[in-house]
TrEMBL record:
Protein name: Pyrimidine nucleoside phosphorylase C-terminal domain-containing protein
A Pfam family assignment: PYNP_C
Keywords for the protein's UniProt record, in alphabetical order: Transferase
Gene Ontology CC entries for this record: cytosol
Keyword match Ribosomal protein: no
Organism per entry: Petrolisthes manimaculis
SMART domains: PYNP_C (SM00941)
GO BP, one annotated term: pyrimidine nucleobase metabolic process
């Protein structure tokens, strides 16, 4: 899919391997850690909220032809089923411009925790890889 969008074969392979190599991508000017406001097991992360934050950073388009900033985005350090402690970074936001508090607050609200359950493994949503 990446190659159909113009990504070089070697870059697509590096990005999609079991140990992705992101050195082919541009780097953002700033990285802001998103810290957990409480402790517990991650029960959900609102993907729509993260998509809206990414769009606000410039990682997406509102209309065809809008530019995309390939250096910005979100990196998750925790996923559903993993334990996170209060004050621990569960994600990081890569951005080129000052980060509005509203975007950081939206990210904070995207994370849902439950302190009454044990960590668990989510079944993979990937059935197989096509090469």
């Amino acid at each position: 899919m990446l190659q159909k969008q113009g990504v070089a074969a070697n870059v697509a392979e590096a990005l999609c391997s079991d140990n992705p190599d992101y050195s082919h991508l541009p780097s953002a000017k700033h990285v802001t850690q998103v810290l957990a406001q409480g402790s517990g097991v991650v029960t959900s992360i609102n993907a729509m909220t993260m998509a809206e934050v990414n769009l606000a950073l410039g990682a997406g388009r509102n209309r065809a032809g809008d530019p995309i900033n390939f250096s910005v985005g979100i990196v998750l350090h925790k996923v559903v089923g993993e334990k996170v402690g209060k004050g621990e970074a569960w994600a990081e936001i890569h951005h080129d411009n000052p980060l509005p508090n509203s975007l950081l607050n939206n990210m904070q609200e995207a994370l849902k925790l439950d302190s009454s359950i044990d960590p668990f493994n989510m079944p993979s949503l990937v059935v197989s890889r096509v090469s």
